[in-house]
Backbone:
C-alpha cells in the first residue's frame, strides 16, 4: 500500500475499524415466545460515586436492568445471551420463560447466578443472598408452558434490598398476584414490570398488580415497540402521573422518591 497517499491511509483506518466492529448477535427463531432480534445496547458505564442511600438503575433492554449499589455491587436482571449490560455483574438473576430471560452460558466471572426456577424440577427456587450492601430474595410465581399448561414456580419476582430502598423485578409474570405473594414481597418502593400484555400478563391484569403493590416508582419494561408501551400508558393516564426520561439511567433514594406513585419511562427496547 502507498502510505504516502492520504486516501490510502484513510481507507486503511476505515477498513480496520469496520473489521473490528462485531456483528449484532441474532436470536434464533426455532423457539416459541418472545425472541427480540437485538444485540445488547452499548450503554456508557456510569462512574459517578453513589451516596450511601442511593441506587442506580439502567434499563439495558427487554427485561434486563443493571442495578448498582453504593458499595459497588452490580446486578443484572433476567440476564441472557442476547441483551447484556456493558459490565460483568456480580449477581445475575434469571427466569425460565424464554431464552431472552436466561443464559446457557453466563459469564464465569459472575459471583452469584440465581435462576428463578429450580433447574432440578424438585419445586420452587429459594434464594436469600447477601453480597456486600445488597440482599436479594425471590418470590416464586407460575408461568404458562409451551403446550398451554402451567409450569409451576417457573418464574420468580426478585426483590433487591439496598439500604432503605426495596426494588422488585416482576420477571415474566403470567398471572395476578395473590395475597400470599404480596405478603412475601413486603413493601416495594420501585417496581420493574412487563407491559407487552400478551407473552406476560394482560395489561388490565398488570394494572391490578401495580395497584396492589403500590410502589412509589413504576418502571415499564418488556414492550415491543412504542405502540405497546403507549397503549399501556393510555390505560394509566387517570391513575398515575407519567414521566418520560431522556436517559436510560436513573438514580433513586428513599428520600427522593416521588410523593405519590409515579410511572417513570426509561428509553429502551
Residues:
Amino acid at each position: 500500500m502507498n502510505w504516502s497517499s492520504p486516501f490510502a491511509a484513510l481507507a486503511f483506518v476505515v477498513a480496520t475499524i469496520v473489521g473490528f466492529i462485531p456483528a449484532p448477535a441474532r436470536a434464533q427463531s426455532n423457539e416459541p415466545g418472545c425472541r427480540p432480534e437485538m444485540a445488547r445496547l452499548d450503554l456508557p458505564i456510569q462512574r459517578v460515586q453513589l451516596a450511601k442511600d442511593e441506587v442506580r438503575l439502567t434499563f439495558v433492554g427487554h427485561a434486563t436492568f443493571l442495578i448498582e449499589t453504593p458499595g459497588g455491587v452490580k446486578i443484572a436482571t433476567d440476564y441472557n445471551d442476547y441483551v447484556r449490560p456493558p459490565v460483568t455483574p456480580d449477581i445475575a438473576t434469571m427466569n425460565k420463560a424464554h431464552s431472552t430471560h436466561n443464559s446457557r452460558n453466563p459469564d464465569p466471572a459472575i459471583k452469584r447466578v440465581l435462576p428463578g426456577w429450580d433447574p432440578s424440577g424438585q419445586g420452587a427456587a429459594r434464594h436469600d443472598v447477601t453480597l456486600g450492601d445488597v440482599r436479594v430474595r425471590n418470590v416464586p410465581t407460575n408461568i404458562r408452558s409451551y403446550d398451554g399448561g402451567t409450569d409451576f414456580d417457573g418464574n420468580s419476582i426478585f426483590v433487591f434490598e439496598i439500604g432503605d430502598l426495596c426494588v422488585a423485578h416482576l420477571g415474566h409474570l403470567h398471572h395476578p398476584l395473590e395475597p400470599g405473594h404480596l405478603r412475601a414481597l413486603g413493601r416495594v418502593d420501585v417496581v420493574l414490570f412487563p407491559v407487552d400484555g400478551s407473552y406476560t400478563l394482560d395489561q388490565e391484569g398488570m394494572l391490578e398488580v401495580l395497584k396492589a403493590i403500590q410502589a412509589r416508582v413504576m418502571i415499564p419494561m418488556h414492550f415491543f415497540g412504542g405502540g405497546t408501551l403507549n397503549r399501556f400508558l393510555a390505560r394509566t393516564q387517570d391513575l398515575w402521573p407519567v414521566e418520560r426520561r431522556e436517559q436510560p439511567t436513573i438514580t433513586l433514594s428513599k428520600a427522593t422518591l416521588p410523593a405519590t406513585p409515579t410511572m417513570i419511562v426509561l428509553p429502551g427496547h
In short: The chain has four helices and 14 strands. The helical segments are 6-19, 179-185, 203-213, 226-236. The first helix runs from residue 6 to 19.
